[in-house]
Hints:
- Keywords: Glycosyltransferase, Transferase.
- This protein has helices at 9-12, 54-60, 78-90, 111-123, 132-142, 157-170, 191-205, 216-219, 228-239, 253-261, 277-285, 297-300, 315-328, 336-361, and strands at 2-4, 33-34, 37-41, 67-69, 95-99, 126-129, 147-148, 176-183, 208-215, 244-248, 265-267, 288-292, 304-306, 308-309, 312-313.
- It is of the alpha/beta class.
- The radius of gyration is 22 Å and the shape is globular.
Amino acid sequence: MASIPSGHVYVRHLDPLPGTAPETPEIVRLPDPDPDSPDNPATGKWWPPVMLSAQWIDANADLFDVFHIHFGFDALDPRDLQEVVAALRRNGKPLVYTVHDLRNPHHESPAAHDAHLDVLIPGADALITLTEGAAAEIEHRWGRRPDVIAHPHVVEPQTMAKYARRAEEAGTGGPYRVGVHVKSLRASMDPLPVIRVLLELAREDGGMVVQVNGHCDVLEPGGARYDAELAQFLERKSRSGELELHIHDFLPDDQLWDYLAGLDLSVLPYRFGTHSGWLEACRDLGTAVAAPDCGFYADQGPVFGYSHNEDGLDAASLKAAVRAARHAGPPAPLEPRARAEQRNAIAARHAELYAELLERSGVLQ
């Protein structure tokens, strides 16, 4: 199996939990080749994916039975993707494409990603997406109905259990903590209007802390993506005590989980998008999520919805979402066992799909 990229947490969690599903066939995924040394496995860096080329497919077709694309084709010309599809055809290898994004969160305009989708969606032998809403849009736009297979857990079940115990021991009390994460400020994000409204709400309602976390490249002068307006606003509000500001580089998983578990509500500040792994991590950790109506976040799992898209933010709807979340109290934590069972079911469905494709292609008789 060639999964692009095999090292991504989503792809890793398409396998059953070790030792828990002996009835599910084992899927052997090729390691991501190192982009700087393609003959060697990647040790962490997988982008740009070496396997996404007709030359690699022709040279390595005897190493895999199925080619499954998830992420990593952002920088390719659509003609390169057409060559990938053609190489798979001439080598008799079925193509599976999981449509994670109907709108690329890194692109200001949808045009480039649409051109990619116009190659991959018609060219794939099988399509998967994560929600019914996304499946309906794909069917409307391309006339193909994907299989809908839910997003697996992001946080490991044993870690989920640890945070559930910690939450029980801590109980309730203290101010209501609302977080906005500005990451490296993708094109899909418009956090400043969201943060302004949250600060208004904190003044109006009291007993609420607004916490903003962001990466050094966005919030420190000299950073590759430094946003002076956002950084200076956050610095002023931090100095005045109106919000808590945390500036850091990418957090290792244990620190990221501590941060997310410490929030009562995580507000996704997106003006366009499709699905969210961040949302799934929050669900795993028992943190409520306020999500915009511009994508299919509400189809993924329970969220407190508000209106935010490329036309702007509806401030009243955001305030209502936060108040509703606060009134509802902490969400019921997801059971690690239930998440593990869901992962195994997701793995089994993928294995079934691969077997169907191989039987159709004559590899399995």
